[in-house]
Design goal:
This protein has 79 residues and is mainly alpha-helical. It is elongated and about 60 Å long. It has one domain: Helix Hairpins, CATH 1.10.287. A two-stranded antiparallel ribbon has the order 1-2. A hairpin with a 5-residue loop joins strand 1 and strand 2. It has 2 helices and 2 strands, in the order H-H-E-E.
């Protein structure tokens, strides 16, 4: 499992790491202390993925539609 800082991970890397953590925890063969560490990293990864998805959603929502429902352009994303 990569111990790269969560903030440095792409969405795809973070999702893969989160899936790996879930799999390890579901197997139930991890010591309690390690389970807690994995759970904490999993929570960080989940938060990171949600933030990346929210940012992507905001960018998609910046697409403007004309009165007839067709795309008429976009506005730059601004946080």
């Amino acid at each position: 499992m990569s111990e790269k800082p969560v903030a440095d991970l792409s969405f795809e890397e973070a999702l893969r790491a989160l899936e790996e953590i879930v799999t390890r925890l579901e197997r139930g063969d991890v010591a309690l202390d390690q389970s807690i560490t994995l759970y904490e990293r999993g929570a960080e990864l989940k938060k990171h993925c949600e933030a990346r998805l929210n940012a992507a959603q905001m960018r998609v929502e910046a697409i403007r539609l004309a009165e007839d429902g067709t795309p008429k352009g976009t506005e730059p994303f601004s946080a």
